[in-house]
Amino acid sequence: MSRVARTIHGKMSGLLGVLLLVAGANSMYASNSAVIDLRPNNFDNLVLNSDHIWVVEFYAPWCGHCQQLMPEYDKAATALKGVVKVGAVNADEHKSLGGKYGVRGFPTIKIFGLDKKPEEYNGPRSAAGIVDAALNAASQKVRKSLGGKTSGGESKSKDSKDVIELTDENFDKTVLNSEDMWLVEFYAPWCGHCKNLAPEWATAATELKGKVKLGALDATVNTLKASKYEIKGYPTIKFFAPGKKDADSLQDYDGGRTSGDIVNWALEKLAENIPAPEVVQITSEQALRATCEDKPICVVSVLPHILDCQSDCRNGYLKTLSNLGEKYKKKMWGWVWTEAGAQLHIEDALEIGGFGYPALAAVNIKKMKYSLLKGSFSYDGINEFLRDLSYGRGGTAPLKGAKLPVIIETTPWDGKDAEPPQEEEIDLSDVNLDEKDEL
User: Fold this and answer.
1) Fewer CB within 10 Å, N or C, the chain?
2) In terms of Cα–Cα distance, which of 56, 55, 66 is closest to 28?
3) Could you give the CA distance from residue 213 to residue 266 in angstroms, rounded to a whole number?
């Protein structure tokens, strides 16, 4: 190759490199990654019009959770190469794609499996979890190709532990006397449709854990309940609304039989029936755990001392929190409050002291992380903070001490104003002010 040719070749190579760099500039994943960059101009052709199972992440480059997921997602894509396709959409740039698939927060992962109907992945944000879900979708596709069934034999999902076994003896106490929302499957062990439903039911139970309870009752053994609820075919699924149960609490389930169908149906019903959460005062560790331990986020407020903010003032803050609890009730968050100085360990763990009162933080107890409100403690200020948090925006920090703070048992507020402490009157009648004491 001549010197001129080599020079031209070198310039062309450099230009190509720049072009490739520019083309991938808006993608969070490297050009040599096994994660395929998906955009509106290639999504339908690559994903919807292909015979492959696809795992697709919808992300935003600025999202901290997306950045934390990136190495695990990359690792999963490499492991699944040649088996399942793995892609990613910059939904911050390509909002049309995010909107089309109902993406409301980042990162969101959807699996395009059978019939290309996307199902949201809610498992662990790890390579192993993503690979397991992808292989499960691929397995269903293969089984359907073989015999039209998505599962076979007596096999059970590894997540079947989250399906609660019900009997004639425990049904009333477990279901009817609980405040939870329930979906109950009445089945027969020999029923083929029941066997096909089993792994889907188990997966749905895991995804709905902490929100909706799923149970299963062998109707061939527990004939009292099967007769009471007029079970005539298998499987039959009954819905029991949340709250106090009565005859009107019972409805027939009329949704689909995939885990995605079951989850979506249950969440829609939950949204219809769920009351606004109570804003609970932190008076003990038990009160805090009962309100927050199984919630994805717990909103913790520290209100001014009653001497600094009497009942009208405090009730105003509590009403603001209640209104926001109503707005975000579908999120299934916990809401708690404490008085300034009453739970100093909490204030210390959340490093609230430097911002004054009232103060607010959103805490994930399972991950022991929190995000502190730095704007105004008002409806609009807190709403903006929580909205950004639900979309994956805003920084988080580990709880100081990396464990649940020590909770001091306190007396609940009685709803009344507080009397300022009275100064003790000193009797000066016996004091001779004319006398001078020598030092």
Assistant:
1) C
2) 66
3) 10
The rounded distance, in Å, linking the Cα atoms of 203 and 209 is 10
- As given in the structure block, the two tokens for residue 211 are 């929100």
Q: Are 181 and 241 in contact (CB under 8 A)?
A: yes
- State residue 112's pLDDT score: 93
Angstrom distance (rounded) from CA 199 to CA 206: 11
| pLDDT confidence of residue 23 | 38
How long is the chain? 439
Q: Do 184 and 238 contact (CB within 8 A), yes or no?
A: yes
Strands 85-90 and 236-240: unpaired
What residues act catalytically? 63, 66, 191, 194
A 10 A CB-CB count for 176 gives 14
Write the CB contacts of 37 (distance below 8 Å, at least 6 apart in sequence). Answer: 24, 27, 29, 87, 88, 90
Structure tokens at 252: 């027939």
What distances in angstroms separate CA 435 from CA 202, 334, 361, one per listed residue? 90, 66, 59
Can you tell me the distance from the alpha carbon of 208 to that of 267, in angstroms, rounded to the nearest whole number? 8
- 69 vs 260: CA distance, rounded Å: 23
Contact indicator for 190, 219 with CB cutoff of 8 Å? no
Q: What angle do CA 387, 390, 394 make, to 5 degrees?
A: 80
Going from the C-alpha of 240 to that of each of 177, 184, 185, 204, 393, the distances in angstroms are: 11, 8, 11, 16, 36
- Secondary structure (DSSP) of 5-41: HHHHHHHHHHHHHHHHHHHTTT-SS-TTSSSEEE-TT
Q: In what order do the strands lie in the sheet with 182-187?
A: 164-166, 213-218, 182-187, 236-240, 250-252
Neighbours of 267 (CB within 10 A): 17
Structure tokens at 215: 């149970």
Could you state, in chain order, the average pLDDT of each consecutive group of 10 residues for the chain (439 residues)? 45 40 61 94 92 94 93 94 94 92 91 86 87 83 59 42 92 92 94 92 91 93 93 94 80 92 89 82 93 90 95 96 90 93 92 83 89 93 92 82 86 92 67 55
Residues sharing a CB contact under 8 Å with residue 213, sequence separation 6 or more, in sequence order: 164, 178, 180, 181, 182, 183, 205
